Amino acid sequence: MTDTLTKPVPPVAERQPSGYMHGLDLLRILASVGLVLTHLTAWFALRDKDYWLALWVQRDVVGTLHLNSHLSLLGVALSFVLSGVVVTHVASRERPLQFLWRRVVRLMPLLWVVTLLAWTLINLGYQVSAAKESDLTFGALVSGMFLVNFFMDPPVALVAVTWTLTIQIVFYAYVAATIPLLRRKPWIPPLAAVPLCFITLLVTDGFSGSTAFQIGQFGAYLPVLVIGQLISLVHSGKVHPLAGTAIGAAHFVLFIWVHKATGYTLQGDSMPRTVFIAVLLTIVLVSASGPVSRSAFVRGWSKRTYAIYLVHLSCLYPLFDTLMGVLDPNLVVVLGLALTALVAEILHRLVEMPAHNAVRRWEKRTKR
Prior knowledge:
The chain is mainly α.
């Protein structure tokens, strides 16, 4: 009897080839633009300065769509949903340990380089996030390189955006552990994640401190990544749309409860609306395959979004603090974005791609 929650798997000859999903490139770009725009406009708010772009975002985008101030969480929510889609898609072709190894090589070398950059700038007196850090020790550098800094009391803000990376890594571990189930009963891992997240939230609710808060955030935000996983499973035909919608709705309701009843989602009152918009954009664009989504420009930009994600704060904030009172604000913003693009390009070519190519060469040698 066919599992009612899983679509029948067609014979090999009838299966559609799992081609590249060009719409994901557009989503990566939207997520990176949302993240950079959030922190760019937030700089002006932190410094109590007016700027036309920040005013336009607040009045015409945030006000019209009733989103969080400075579009907070929009880029993050898109990144989470997108990560759920992409990771689930690639997990279907990889073994659990291979899957984890490739994710580590994809993430860590670039994280180490940017963490060292942020640590150096902070010790030179620059501010590289909303938090003001100073005189960081070598131990703080090491903690940031391995994302332990968020579990310290008090937490240390180095590459501040990487709090989202800790949540994605937990999701990667969950996917790796459930790869056998994802291949046989793909609806079970996303469904099992509902009580798992709920129990995590209940357990951490009675504790205080950075470690308990960080673990609580895992339970709070993992539902967003699992919704992305469900989009991937439904899109590939592995889970029936009705089952995917029902399980996804359970995760969305859980996220609403987290927002209303806990203190883990503190980025604004419109968190559920923001996640809902991110989910809708992903559903609409995941199958996009027009000339824009297939263009070399979009593909190239999308490949550099991880570098942009990591480095944009370390480029924008020190430059703004140095030049904003000296040059025209529009010019300074353009220079900040150009510096971000340049540094991201250098890091992509000299760190990210060499690490990626090295692991592929190693895998080929071990198969011989």
